[in-house]
TrEMBL record:
Source organism of this protein record: Apostasia shenzhenica
Protein name in UniProt: Glycosyltransferase
Membrane found in the keyword field: no
Protein family: Belongs to the UDP-glycosyltransferase family.
Keywords: Glycosyltransferase, Transferase
Annotated ranges, domain Glycosyltransferase N-terminal: 29-265
PANTHER family listed in its UniProt record: GLYCOSYLTRANSFERASE (PTHR48047)
Signal peptide positions on this chain: none
One function term, GO molecular function aspect: UDP-glucosyltransferase activity
Known EC number: 2.4.1.-
UniProt-annotated stretches for the region Disordered: 1-23
Length: 509
C-alpha cells in the first residue's frame, strides 16, 4: 500500500554524518494516537521539547491536522522547530468510512477494530518517511496504543519511548487487576471489585473497570500493546510526581521501567491565546467569554463539559438543566455538543430561562482558559484525564461524572484519594448514546446536590477548595525551572540522546 505524504511546517536543514549530534539539536518524532484527547497533550509535549532545544516531527493525518490547525499555525508563527507531517489514513483499506481518522469520529462499536487495524497500516509509510528524513530522527515517542511503532523504531535502530495519556492511577490499577486476575473472580458486571495493591481500600463495580482490550476479540492487539510497552526504553506520562507519588513509585517498581512524569502539559503556556488554541478552534469568541466571566464573583461559576466523545440523550440534557436551575442560583458555563434538533430546541428554552446566570457554548470550548479564570470555582467533568489534570492545574474542585474507559478510575482518584471532588452518582458506562431515546442515568436532584456541595461553601466545600488550590500550586511549581516535571523532561532528553548514540555505535560496528 502506498500512502501519500504531505509535509507541513518547517524543519532545520543540517548535514548528515557521524558528528551530527555535535552539529544539531536532538530530533524527536512524536506519534500520537489519532484521538482528540491524545492529540492535545502530545502537541503540548512537542512544544515543550522544542522550547527545550529539540527539533520535533509530529505525525498526524489530514483530518486530525485540520483539527489542530489553530495551534499549528501559532507554532509556525512562533518559529518553534516543529514539523507537522500528514500521512494518508488508510480508511478504505479496512472498511472505515471516508474521513474516519479519529476515535471520536467512530460511530459504532464494530468500527473500533478496523480503526486500530488502519492505524497499524501507517507503519510502512512512517518508516519510509523517517528513513529519508533530514535531519535524521534520534528518538520516537509514541502513544502506548500505537504498538506498531515498535517495529518502525527497531528497523531504523531508534530508541522508542511510550507516552501514556491517562493517569498513572489508571495505568497501575489496570496492571494490578490483570496481574491478580481480579475480574475473572467476579461473576456479574454489577458485582463489586476491590482494587488490589493500593494503600487504601477502593471498591468499584466490575463493569466500571472492564477495558475494551480485556475482551477476547481484542486479545491479539492487547498482547501487541503489552509487548510494545515491555520493549520500550522508557515511559513518558502526563502527570507529576507530587500528584501521584505512591502510584508512580509502585508502577516503576512493578514494571522496572524508567518513568518520566512531565505534566501537567496543559501548563506549557500560561498565555490566554496559547490556552485557547489547544485542541480545535473555539466555538466562542475568547474576548466575549472573558467579558462574561469578568462580571461574576470569584469562585462562583461552575463549568459543565463532558469532553470530545461523550454525548447526552435529550432526557439527560433535561435533567442536567433541571439540576442547574435548582442549584441555588449558581452561575454556570455549559458546553453542549449534542446536535439533535429536539435537543437544540430544548436548549433554546433553557437558555432563555437562565439568561444572565448561564452561558451556553455550542461546540468546542477553550476549557483551559475557562478553568484558569478566577471566577470559576467548580467543574462538572466526565473525568477524562486531560480535563481532570486541567482542573488540578487550575486548583478547581470537581463534580465527577465518568462515562467510560479510564474515567471511573479517575473519579476514584479525584474523590477518594485526592479528595477534591464530589460524585454525581453515575454508575454505568455510556459511550454511544442515542440522543433522542436513552433514559437519563442521573437525575436533576443528583446534579443540583453535587453542584451545591462543591460550590456553596461549608466545611466540606472549603476543605475541597483548599486541597485543590494546594495541588494547583504544586502543579505550577513542578513545571517551573527546578521543578520535578521540568527536571524529568531534561532527563528524558538526555537518555534519548545517550541511547541513540548506543544504537548508532552498534550499527556502525
Amino acid at each position: 500500500m502506498t500512502n501519500q505524504i504531505v509535509i507541513n511546517g518547517s524543519g532545520n536543514e543540517t548535514s548528515n554524518g557521524s558528528s551530527r549530534h555535535k552539529q544539531r539539536p536532538p530530533h524527536f518524532v512524536l506519534v500520537p494516537l489519532m484521538a482528540q484527547g491524545h492529540m492535545i497533550p502530545m502537541v503540548d509535549l512537542a512544544r515543550l521539547l522544542a522550547d527545550a532545544g529539540s527539533t520535533v516531527t509530529f505525525i498526524t493525518t489530514p483530518v486530525n491536522a485540520a483539527r489542530i490547525r489553530p495551534v499549528a499555525d501559532r507554532i509556525r508563527l512562533s518559529g518553534l522547530p516543529i514539523t507537522f507531517v500528514e500521512l494518508r489514513f488508510p480508511a478504505a483499506e479496512t472498511g472505515l468510512p471516508d474521513g474516519c481518522e479519529s476515535v471520536d469520529l467512530i460511530t459504532s462499536a464494530d468500527l473500533f477494530k478496523p480503526f486500530f487495524e488502519a492505524l497499524s497500516l501507517l507503519a510502512d509509510p512512517l518508516k519510509l518517511y523517517l528513513s529519508e528524513l533530514t535531519p535524521p530522527p534520534d528518538c520516537i515517542i509514541a502513544d502506548s496504543m500505537n504498538c506498531w511503532t515498535a517495529s518502525v523504531a527497531r528497523s531504523l535502530g531508534l530508541p522508542r519511548f511510550i507516552f501514556h495519556g491517562p493517569s498513572c492511577f489508571f495505568i497501575f490499577c489496570s496492571l494490578m487487576l490483570r496481574q491478580h486476575k481480579s475480574l475473572a473472580a467476579v461473576a456479574g458486571d454489577l458485582d463489586p471489585v476491590v482494587l488490589p495493591d493500593l494503600p487504601q481500600r477502593i471498591e468499584m463495580l466490575k463493569v466500571q473497570v472492564v477495558r475494551w482490550m480485556d475482551r477476547p476479540e481484542w486479545e491479539k492487539i492487547s498482547q501487541e500493546v503489552r509487548a510494545a510497552e515491555a520493549s520500550a526504553q522508557g515511559v513518558v506520562m502526563n502527570t507529576f510526581e507530587e500528584l501521584e507519588p505512591w502510584c508512580l513509585e509502585r508502577f516503576r517498581k512493578t514494571t522496572g521501567k524508567t518513568v518520566w512524569p512531565i505534566g501537567p502539559l496543559s501548563l506549557y503556556k500560561e498565555e490566554v491565546e496559547s490556552k485557547a488554541a489547544r485542541g480545535k478552534a473555539s466555538s466562542i469568541d475568547t474576548e466575549l467569554l472573558l467579558g462574561w466571566l469578568k462580571t461574576k464573583p470569584a469562585d462562583s461559576v461552575v463549568l459543565i463539559s463532558f469532553g470530545s466523545l461523550s454525548r447526552n440523550s435529550l432526557s439527560q440534557l433535561v435533567e442536567i438543566g433541571r439540576g442547574l436551575e435548582e442549584a441555588a442560583g449558581v452561575p454556570f458555563i455549559w458546553v453542549v455538543k449534542e446536535t439533535a434538533a429536539e435537543a437544540a430546541s430544548w436548549m433554546e428554552g433553557f437558555e432563555e430561562r437562565t439568561k444572565g446566570r448561564g452561558l451556553l457554548i455550542r461546540g468546542w470550548a477553550p476549557q483551559a482558559v475557562i478553568l484558569a479564570h478566577p471566577a470559576v470555582g467548580g467543574f462538572m467533568t466526565h473525568c477524562g484525564w486531560n480535563s481532570t489534570l486541567e482542573a488540578v492545574a487550575a486548583g478547581v474542585p470537581m463534580v465527577t461524572w465518568p462515562r467510560f474507559g479510564d474515567q471511573f478510575l479517575n473519579e476514584k482518584l479525584v474523590v477518594e484519594v485526592l479528595q477534591i471532588g464530589v460524585p454525581v452518582g453515575a454508575r454505568l458506562p455510556t459511550l454511544f448514546v442515542d440522543e433522542m431515546s436513552q433514559e437519563a442515568q442521573v437525575k436533576g436532584e443528583q446534579v443540583g446536590e453535587a453542584v451545591v456541595r462543591v460550590m456553596a461553601g461549608g466545611m466540606e466545600g472549603e476543605e475541597m477548595r483548599r486541597r485543590a488550590r494546594g495541588l494547583g500550586e504544586k502543579a505550577r511549581r513542578t513545571m517551573e525551572e527546578g521543578g520535578s516535571s521540568c527536571e524529568n523532561l531534561k532527563r528524558m532528553m538526555e537518555v534519548a540522546d545517550l541511547q541513540h548514540h548506543v544504537h548508532a555505535a552498534k550499527i556502525k560496528i
